[in-house]
Amino acid sequence: MNVANELKPERVFFDDDRALLDRVMRVYLPHCQYLTGAVLEVTPQPDGPGRPTVTGRFEIGDSCYIDDTGHFNAVEFNICYNQMAYYLIAKSVKEGLLPVFAGWDLEDFFRLQLPNILIVDFRSNFKRQMRGKRFSGSVTLTEVLKLERSQRWEPLVVLRTVCRFWDETEGNCRGEVKLAITNPVT
What we know:
Blueprint: E1 12-14, H1 18-25, E2 35-45, E3 48-59, H2 74-95, H3 106-116, E4 117-128, E5 134-147, E6 156-166, E7 172-182
Antiparallel strand pairs: 1-2, 2-3, 3-5, 4-7, 5-6, 6-7
Helix pairs in contact: 1-2, 2-3
């Protein structure tokens, strides 16, 4: 068969899952629930499972910690990143998208969400100032590492992600975040 004639797998889209998003956001105080909608896209990869990307819509009526600065800042970046990352993991578990979560169900995710999903490396870069009231963002899972139990540590899952945020005024910021999931379901 001619490789050029082979069909490429299509991207898969998962529409806004309002019930799941509402449950993911329960851990946030009501005035800190900035993520208002999210869609998950899975891009096929030739060497393994698809690469999930969540794209979200955000609204920040009032900042949860400071008077209005007029711009999107590093604290809000972190909170918005967390909200999308939690949704990405929960939706991946629900849809059975990644082998690393094969033994999980949603109750496992919600049990681990706050105490066991940790940011271990966080980098943000603000290319152009954003207003921060209504904007969009995305998180893409770029690498998954599963470390088995050893004499030095308990089992650990490491997720490498890239993210970005933008608004209608061409505001633009990006980041790279590494998450660790301690004591994952095996």
